[in-house]
Amino acid sequence: MSEIQFMSDTMVGMSERRRWSDRALCTAFRASKPMLKLVRAVMPKVKEEEKWKPPEKMEKRKPTSQAEWEASLDTLAANKSMWSKKEDQEKAILLQTCMNNIVQVMEEAAAIGHRAKGQYEMGLAEEMFAWVTCILFAKETIQFLLEGDNCLHGVTSRQVGNQVVCTVLPTGLDCMLYAEYRGEVWLEPGQPPTVGQKAKAVQEREELALILGAGNQIPVIFGDVIHKLFVESSVAMLKFSPVNCYNGTVLEKVFEPLLNLGILKFAYGGSDVGEALVGHKKVDAIHLTGSEDTFNAIVWGGTPDEGAEGTRAVNKRITAELGGCTPYIIFPGEWTNEQLDYMARQIVAGKVHNSGHNCLAAEVVVTSRTWRQREQFLNRLEHHFNTTAQRVPYYPGSFEKYKAFKRAAARANLKELGKVGVEGAVPWILVENLDPKDVDGTEHWCGVMQEVALDLPDDDLNDFARSAVEFANERCAGQLSCSVWASQEVQTKLGAAWEKDVILGLRYGSISVNTCILPAFGFSRLGWGAYPGNGLDNIGSGNAMIHNSLRFDHLQKSVLYCPLPVFPPAIWLHDIKNGENIARLAAKYFANPSIGALAKLAVANLRA
């Protein structure tokens, strides 16, 4: 595969034309922004009746018998070579069918998801947007299958020290939606910007992969399947988590062409089924989304013995995307009232989404104790928690974690927040004004948040940058994702230190600037996974960079820059209005982009 730096003259010319087209679209949006704001101000807003519902107990799927999953493995093994050798254009047609199937079943699927998780301010929209994310994964993967290296047209690159940084967002018609966003991928030091070589190596091995599915979110499951089948060209057995095996009914419809072709199979059941599949001789590789404890149980049969490679319980290629404690770093500076309010609203969205049962959920907010606007910011944070429905911790074990945190933090400045709603819901917990040494830097997987105030003289930006980065790297478990809030003025004042000390200094695989982390997960062009360097005996947040639709071989991290505030309102906000209609139109637009579909989506978003 070619490198960006060494594209042919023809490709460079095409790249320049697409780049200028993208710039023109972004410029058009910026020019129309004042008019659009005026239109939104006079446009009637959608008034929605809130229909809060507690979670229901969902019926479990019948466990797959050994005879059934053995037969499935036989089918998959027989089709490894066929699938590996199938032309990318044929694969794209199959994935396009799956994507169109999502549009057809999305509302049914969202209703099932909310029955299991509960329904709050957004109605069905929260789960509908989860399925929109699946469409985005499919769309961006289809683009590479059809265009190959040509989908790198419009990607620009620059050198920062000995690292290549590629700007991959926004592109195409999406520039009208994300004109003021910027998505970058940072490659590992000293590595060239090659694409597809690692994926090609896996493809040539013709692997049968076991996917141990996530229990919390449908885009994680969908993204893992897409990555294995369409990036690495493996066939796959998807073993559902018992927590959300109810998704199987819908995914059978979505993935119908892949199931019928015999390149994807499903298995249901508990840990006994998972253990049998992990150890089966026909399974060549394993991918897990879950916890570090589960990973260690699979690889080591418990905890790893130091350096004892021979003690591994499983000697197969195993990759994982695991969790962590996600820090939100707030740089001191002069923020407007609108910016402070929107910042607080976004951070609350980053916590309450999926009731806090996310690997990217906001956990620790890092501020400067001497920041002049700190109290004002904390007041807005409390306000947005208090105007948000309390939720039921539906995920098994999460209520126990919630109670344990509450007991441990009882003597701290603990506040219980939120609007009382459905039966079984619990308050959002916010603990403020913690000393760095008192922060619990583990992943809590529930509705709790901590604020730590760093003691620094005179709000020196460079001192804060160094201290906040050190805290995030050393005191917060994992290396998955981090959010940084810094005005353009602050970034300018920091100068070279902004990238050198902050962006480069943070050992996280995904960094979001002036936004919660939810949108960074949704763009597969950015990649998603832990900062490189974890070993099997110290796995941290994992050892895989997934959702990598552009197939960069040496991804170190991605950085997503967002405007503050976002206009029109960000669709990932927990309290957005007109959400169901926006999600419905977004699904149709991303599945089959057109100016008409984009216009309908824009009008709906203006009414949010």
From TrEMBL:
Superkingdom classification of source: Eukaryota
One annotated GO molecular function: oxidoreductase activity, acting on the aldehyde or oxo group of donors, NAD or NADP as acceptor
SUPFAM superfamilies named among the record's database cross-references: ALDH-like (SSF53720)
Domain (Aldehyde dehydrogenase) ranges: 238-386
Record Pfam families: Aldedh
Name this protein carries in UniProt: Aldehyde dehydrogenase domain-containing protein
